[in-house]
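dumping the sequnces here before i forget
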Amino acid sequence: MDKAIVTDQLTRRFGDFIATDAITFSVDRGEIFGFLGANGAGKTTAMRMLCGLLKPSSGHAKVAGYDIATQTELVKKNIGYMSQKFSLYEDLTVKENIRFYGGIYGLSNQRIKEKTAQLLDKLQITKEANQLVSSLPLGWKQKLAFSIAILHDPSIVFLDEPTGGVDPVTRRQFWDLIYEAAHQNVTVFVTTHYMDEAEYCDRISMMVDGKIKALDTPRKLKEQFSAVSMNDVFLQLARQQTVSNQ
Amino acid sequence: MQPIIINNIDKKFGDVKALNNVSFSVEEGELFGLIGPDGAGKSTLFRILTTLLLADKGSASVMGMDVVKDYKKIRRSVGYMPGRFSLYQDLSIEENLRFFATIFNTTVEQNYDLIKDIYVQIEPFKKRPAGKLSGGMKQKLALCCALVHKPSVLFLDEPTTGVDPVSRKEFWEMLQRLREKGIAILVSTPYMDEAVLCDRVALIQKGELMDINTPEGIVRRFAQPMWAVGAGDRYRLMQDLRSYEDTASCYAFGEYLHVTLKSGGAGEDALCQYLSPHQDLTMFRTSAGIEDCFMYLMQEQNQ
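..and the predicted 3d for all of it:
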């Protein structure tokens, strides 16, 4: 299987409102795919469907080879998820969080032990293993959250604005982790409001009013829109929508 | 009179130094940016200046009024938009605005001039509850509410966080127009690219100011030569650069990596040679932006 995500006319309506409007695209294995769009463009709805948390109104999609409408439990087992808003339990220690998520994903005790040692060593937080997560700086939390999201070796990880508010150095260290994961053939599906981060993706889709209005590599998108940066591309595409809404 | 003066402010929460000897002042009609990540101390400073929190040490004044002795007067004459959306979610746009006007003993009509530009953009939705608005519209409403009593100073704590690039751009355009009306504005943001839109900025990290200057002035201080480097296999390029012994710093910046060398400009040829096995290699001299400077200063601070 070389496609991590395949969607076909994937649609979700809420009453009269079409949040996600017949989107069709695919993501390759090991690809870093940036999923961009203005607030309210329908990104979250699409992402929730792909994670098996919301049933589509029509259309189909397969994630990690499983149907998102009929095989939701298999989808959930084979993906990782991390968002800026929710990721770790603040009142559990670093180690307890790892054990908790390892248990949730059905890893054996032996495996959890190995993974814990590996992860602490990689993030260089062995000393902090027994500290409450609430006491860690934000940047560390985000890196830990990412590592825990891929603890069960999923083939795809979904990241919903993972770097909001994080300092510029930590933000880049976070992307190092993303690159490393992609290098090990994990597919990364990421949303962000930082347009420089959009440039780090292999390919990018731009959602406007529930539809995918553009999809290509950052370089080709910039050529297509005669833009100097992804920020320019974004402004050109999303501006039309803002005007039509008001 | 300088609208905001801050002198040697310290604030601790337990063992954590949230602010460490912070001093600066904001000039009349100035758009002043406080730039730094979460946890840098930005909100703590805002809360001290808006009289919601007492500093451990130091003093501060707003429009010549002391933040401790004259707190009641300050509250009447400043506009404050806190970091967390704090309007009434179940009141409509219209109701929220009227509520805030009433609290400040005025009416929407009296100061309509000031908010008109912004309000017309959300007016079509004026019956909608604030909780049901998109991120960009919420920010516009919050700004209207902070302006409705015609404040002489405006405090905006991360007004654009989590807002998409289009709404962010519109929001900054509104701030430029407000500044032209002579209102001093102190605004904080974690987005480094917004620094260039301010008259002056203070870079803050771990409770300490790392630099205060105009955006051009900050960038000018970054003296060492820097290259932008790109290649087909980015991951390998980054690994190669990080393990190169002459590399002083290497950070991803959009399409390219920004690299500085310990040997400065003298090492250019050797670096070029070292990277030559890479396919689609591009390498050129580039100038530093605010974010480069911020990271450089962070490195210095950590040493």
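Chain A is about 40% helix and 25% strand.
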